[in-house]
Design a protein that fits this description.
The strands form 3 sheets. Strands 7, 8, 9, 10, 11, 12, 13, 14 and 15 form a 9-stranded mixed beta sheet that branches. Strands 3-2-5-6 form a 4-stranded antiparallel beta sheet, with no helix packed on it. 27% of the residues are buried. The mean pLDDT is 95. The chain is of the alpha+beta class. Helix 1 packs across helix 2. The chain starts with a strand and ends with a helix. Bound molecules: uracil. Uracil (URA) binds next to helix 5.
């Protein structure tokens, strides 16, 4: 059993104060009865909640796909800079949201935002081999021998060894890279070992989930249940 105001606030209907206003306006019903007190306790799985006549399907967690723009931080909050959470549309906002995996500030593309810690851990843990695919543009020429080096596991200058990665050369200055771990600046550092600088980086997919090409830069939408599963099925 949970308080109705807490349930409503957790479903993106605004702050506790906004929700109290809705209740005062008699806009909320539970099993057909107008809710008069925000402290009313109910079981959201057993009761039908309506807000302004519309049935609310209460979801425990939310799973969002964002096409992250460059210039925005992959973080929940930051004192000075805009984060991926700050640019979510109001209807997708919840408490406790965080990006499942960090893209650099200047990296674009597929970002999953959720409030489900176990789900995020499953995506990020290298032992689950969820490959993340990137498109990279480089400042100088790629060479074929990098393909086998990526496959064997690139070793950074400090001795850190990366897990095997796939490099697919597109042309002299652009390539696709697939990695299943998320070391800090990983793709940039892998190319740096070969003296190449990444000029542009975009994440295209996570496991079998591809960035929706209809999502413009900065836009977000909820993932479908099928898409959620696709992440772990691979491509
Ligand atoms: N590797 C990087 O170097 N940067 C990213 O944002 C993601 C992977």
């Amino acid at each position: 059993m949970e308080r109705i105001d807490k349930i409503l606030a957790s479903q993106g209907l605004g702050s506790r104060r906004d929700v109290h206003k809705l209740i005062k306006q008699k806009a909320v019903t539970v099993d057909g009865e107008i809710v008069l007190k925000p402290e009313l306790k109910i079981d959201p799985e057993k009761s039908e909640i309506r807000v302004n006549g519309n049935t609310l399907s209460v979801k425990k967690y939310i799973y969002i796909m964002m096409n992250k723009p460059a210039g925005v931080l992959s973080a929940s909050n930051d004192e000075r800079e805009k984060t991926v959470i700050d640019i979510l549309p109001p209807e997708l906002r919840r408490k406790n949201l965080f990006p499942a995996g960090r893209l650099d500030k200047d990296t674009e593309g597929l970002t999953i935002i959720t409030d489900d810690g176990d789900f995020a851990h499953k995506i990020l843990s290298p032992k689950n081999h969820v490959y993340k695919r990137y498109y990279a543009e480089l400042d100088s020429e790629l060479s074929e021998d990098m393909i086998s080096a990526f496959k064997e596991g690139v070793v950074f200058n400090d001795g850190t060894k990366c897990l095997p990665a796939a490099l697919e050369i597109r042309d002299k200055h652009s390539a696709y890279v697939e990695i299943c771990e998320g070391k800090y600046h990983q793709v940039k550092k892998m190319f740096a070992v070969f003296g190449l600088k990444v000029k542009y980086l975009k994440r295209l997919s996570i496991g079998g989930l591809e960035l929706d090409s209809n999502l413009h830069i900065g836009e977000s939408r909820e993932l479908t249940n099928l898409e959620k599963r696709t992440i772990f099925i691979g491509k």
